[in-house]
């Protein structure tokens, strides 16, 4: 969701837009060691870097209220960047725990550098993530924790009525979007974690990155914006309205989960010369497809080399990545939230060797 500036309108009438998206994030090959030179008593460090590319399309169909556009969706976001791992440093600066940084460029004209402490990969958290609510309320500029001043100010947030400066203008019963979800986009993450009895989140790790060093508690970080986004102040004796949509901060929480999926094996004798490779949908994916829901659960590419009796269900694991990102855009003397949430699973079938097919 995003509150965005609207030409010719006052503060109350900036446009509130919601999208239901399909995302492809591609993690590219590790670029290897990146040497950073230390000064004085600070030894050199070696960074690890993984590039990524992200494309997001809006799939919300205004006619049906579902995420079922047949044209492939409307492209609304492209991002290229790098995830960096920096080892601990004890002199310059004193950061005694390894950090994760996300460096990215966004075509609207913003570059970001977000940092956070790396999670303990050897101590995952048991069970599904505990994902807290997130507020969509704008706030007085510079006071992101003020959820009271404008709590009842915006007619766009009254989802019981049609409103022409909101996308979608009208919320109908049965639509994929509903009032609780629109007031707390993180609900979608929790709902997707609980939408089937045919899968179980066994464990997860959590980490968070932020552009503001007072939030991350790590020196550095920040955002940089082009002139159009930054806007201007007083020019030629005239007071200008300030930023158009200045991206002042970016924070993102990540949950990387190991998920067990029920998989119904194909019946048959695959021993000896009958060995085959077969792609099978997880049972959770079948449920999602039958219900017309967004398909998040993966398929599996199985190597089969034994006889499989009827109705044989086994469990296979796959990785799921979820994130909740909150960008603050400053304009019209206020901070406006731009919130993105997503649940990502492997787009290609997860390979399963014959030795892993045990029942």
Using brief descriptors, characterize the structure shown.
single chain, 359 residues, mainly beta, seven-stranded antiparallel sheet, six-stranded antiparallel sheet
Descriptive account of the structure:
- With 359 residues, the chain is mainly beta.
- The chain has five helices and 25 strands.
- The strands form seven sheets. Strands 3, 4, 5, 6, 9, 10 and 15 form a seven-stranded antiparallel sheet that branches. A six-stranded antiparallel sheet has the order 11-14-18-23-24-12. Strands 1-2-13 form a three-stranded mixed sheet, with no helix packed on it.
- A hairpin with an 8-residue loop joins strand 4 and strand 5 (45-58).
- The longest helix has 8 residues, at 186-193.
- The radius of gyration is 23 Å and the shape is globular.
- The model has no long low-confidence stretch (mean pLDDT 93).
